[in-house]
Amino acid sequence: MILSPHMNASLIAKVQESFATEISDKKLRDSLRVGDTIVANTRIYIAKKMQKALTTAEKQAAQKAAQSGSDELKVQPFKGVIVAFNGTGSGKKVVVRKIGADGIGVEKIIPLYGNILESVELVSRGKPRRSKLYYLRNRIGKKALRVKEKAVAA
Asked: Which of 19, 67, 68, 91 could form an S-S bond across to 87 if both were Cys, CB 3.0 to 4.6 Å?
């Protein structure tokens, strides 16, 4: 069966809608904008057995151990400013930047509707004049994440 481009696009849209309805805080994720400060709670899997696998047999054993559920699930918050959005639909990704230890900038690309992102908390709204805030990479110190804040009606 050959699908026309129009039929294929509508099929993709239906799949994306059904996937996005499973997420509880979808309205908040849809309302995020560049310049907003958020706390992204991401899921991280920590392997209990971390070892150097030298032979192929050891590599296969390590992979089986990782798949058997011996990993520990941890939720790690990542607080930062949204620098950019990439992608569309269910494949939309957000680039979040924060200043880590010793003043080193850290950027993380997080799938907005993926299972890695457990929840999103909005800390403050920003009012930037650009659609991508890559110029923040060149700033140092307190000004590194400073974006004009938007007055939020309470």
From this structure: 91
The three-class DSSP label of residue 79 is strand
pTM: 0.69
What is the distance between the alpha carbons of residues 100 and 105, in angstroms, rounded to a whole number?
Answer: 6
Residue 113's contacts (CB-CB under 8 Å, 6 or more residues apart) are 19, 20, 23, 29, 90, 91, 92
Could you read off the pLDDT of 42-56 as tens digits, one per residue?
A: 988 776 655 444 456
CA 89 to CA 112: how far, in whole Å?
A: 10
Sequence letter at residue 24:
S
Question: What are the sequence ranges of the domains in the chain?
Answer: 28-45+76-145
The CA radius of gyration of the chain, in Å to the nearest whole number, is 20
The CATH fold assigned to 28-45+76-145 is: SH3 type barrels. (2.30.30)
